[in-house]
Amino acid sequence: MILSNLTIPLLGVVDTAILGHLSDATYLGAVALGAIIFDMLFWAFGFLRMGTTALSAQAYGAANYYETLAILYKSLLLAVIIGCLLVLLQKPLLDLAFWYMAPTPRVEEFSRLYCDIRIYAAPAALCDYVIIGWLLSVGKPRKVLVVVLITNLTNLILDYWLVVQMGMLTDGVALGSLISSLIGMIVGLYLVSQATADFAPKFNLKSLYQFSGYLKLLQVNRYLFVRTLCLLFSFSFFYAQSAQQTTATLSANSIIMTMLMVFAYGADGFANAAEVLIGKSIGAKRLDHFYSASRAATFWFFVVSTVYVAIAATLDRNIIGLLTDIEPVIQETLVFWPWLLVLPFVASWNFMLDGIFLGAGKARAMQYCMLVASLFVFLPSWYLARSLGNHGLWLAFCFFHAARTISMAMVYYYYSKYHLWIKE
Questions:
Q1: DSSP for residue 203
Q2: Which site from 2, 42, 74, 107 is most exposed, i.e. has the minimal number of CB atoms within 10 Å?
């Protein structure tokens, strides 16, 4: 799972390196802005991955293989419907996103070029969420690695060919993302068909049209939907405030955020593993396995955080130099680089707790903790720290992650004290 997850932010690293070595920082800022817009559009429906993993792992742990298949097919149908709606509503959605972000006219021009192409990847990208979530739930991490590697290696090759060799700009990066998403979906569906070949009893496709079967899926997913919207609001607000500063500051923030995502996705391999193990332990009603997985995830998150910060602190100029050779962007990134050394220790605990809560099916608690962190901590912190400029923005972002950690830790303690993990 670590290998699978790392290919996702490494794609962002390569995109940043390719665009960061062009003559103008506008292209880097434009793709960073376009990427966060699609994070908002696509990951708003990240419950298709998280909800599928949690519910399917519990069904699989209880040896209910028919329900495991039902969750897969129903989630795929939801992904296709939602993806097609995003394509149909692309103009008002993108107009709203750019109004909210309020970038400079030149950055918006190239970012729109990116968005107008990548939006057509929506159905495939959402199906990829379901495929990866379901393969995780039934203990097929190697198949997940195959899907993610093929998708992202294809994307890397296309980005290099289209931008460096063919002379395209943000449109080349977007076209690479579109094609690779389609290829990833095709590969993923093939691997899912292999994984389900031995399942019995077989799923009756007619039950896809029975609405009652979607109620449990929708109940869990509604909490995850609200939680994800709050998370995306916080990240998009961060980028919106970055976009209203200089192009060099926007580019510097995007570089630091890209490196933070390398840490987040890599460390999330342990969260994903904990999610599956805990889902199975809850399904099998084995609290001893639940606490064992929780302790292991906590230990490894601390180890990974320490190693990552040591590398980032030692190789700061080398890492930045790989990503851009635009001198104003380099200097601006160095100014704010210390925040990258603080955030892993602040944020890693809520990544770990996310995996535990997801596996245990405690989506409602996740929703409330995220609401508190984003609306009652992040926004007030940013408002009070505005006089500090971009440092104030990063400080508020740290407080946001700290609030998530503290609130979920308190809920974890409460559920453990009153034995509420198996039933509420």
A1: P
A2: 2
Q: pLDDT digits over 261-290, tens only?
A: 888 877 888 888 888 888 888 888 888 899
Task: Flag whether the pTM goes above 0.85.
Answer: no
Domains of the chain, by residue range, sit at: 2-417
CA nearest 146: which of 163, 128, 164, 158? 128
Q: Could you write out the DSSP letters of every residue in 58-110? A: HHHHTT-HHHHHHHHHHHHHHHHHHHHHHHHTHHHHHHHHHHHH---HHHHHH
Contacts of 397 (CB under 8 A, 6+ apart): 234, 238, 339, 343, 378
Residues of the chain with pLDDT under 50: none
Name every residue whose Cβ is closer than 8 Å to that of residue 169 and which is 6 or more positions away in sequence. Answer: 22, 27, 110, 113, 163
Residue 263, classed as helix, strand or coil, is helix
Rounded distance between C-alpha atoms, residue 8 and residue 1, angstroms: 11
| CA–CA dist 424, 410 (Å, integer) | 16
The C-alpha torsion from 58 through 60 and 63 to 67, rounded to 10°, is 90
Angle between helical axes of 122-137 and 247-283 (0-180°, round to 10): 40
Burial 230-248 (b: 16+ CB within 10 A, else e): bbbbbbbbbbbbbbebbbb
SS3 198: coil
Q: What is the DSSP string of 286-324?
A: -HHHHHHHHHHHHHHHHHHHHHHHHHHHHSHHHHHHHH-
What's the token pair of residue 227? 């939680």
pLDDT of residue 225: 81
The confidence score (pLDDT) of residue 14 equals 66
Amino acid identity for residue 2 in this structure: I
Q: What is the SS3 assignment for 419?
A: coil
